[in-house]
Amino acid sequence: MERKDYLDLKYKIMKRFITISLLLFLNVNLYAAENQNKIAILVNDKVITNYDIEQRVKIFALINKVKITPENGGIITNKIVDELIDSLLKTEKIEEYGIIVSDNDFIKYENHFFKTRGIAKEELFQLLKINNVKEKQFNDMIYNDIAW
């Protein structure tokens, strides 16, 4: 087996293991208060809290103009948890290889992000504020996308 295939397989197995563990042991409370930052997932000594999950679910809902309901909440939450796990694993590699995104690249990507989704930046940031979502959460998500 080639090294690349082995690493891809190892990554997929690790991701699946984390997801299965999550499904067995995690009961995500989407309405957790900020002061109830409980560890939801531990990925290679990095923590994902209920609050992190809640923030990303809200960002997802605002960007995609989706209302979170009891019917779709679990599916969306599982999708977001997978994305957060991927993001942490990617961040480890980004840091390992010393990848840095320039301010210019960040602005270009951010402009492209808003343009392709037909969302005004100011409008989204206002919605984030109304929904108690920190802009840093959104900016971290964008930064990680660019760096990867």
Brief characterization of the structure:
The chain is built from 6 helices and 2 strands; from the N terminus they run H-E-E-H-H-H-H-H. The protein is mainly α and 148 residues long.
List keywords for this structure.
mainly alpha, two-stranded antiparallel ribbon, globular
* Average pLDDT over all residues: 82
Secondary-structure element series: HEEHHHHH
How much helical structure, as a percent, in the residues? 55-70%
Contiguous helical run count:
6
Overall geometry comes to: globular
Low-confidence stretches: 21-35
Radius of gyration of CA atoms, rounded to a whole number: 16 Å
Largest beta sheet: strand ordering: 1-2
Q: What profile does the largest beta sheet have?
A: 2 strands, antiparallel
Structural class: mainly alpha
Alpha-carbon distance between the two ends: 25 Å
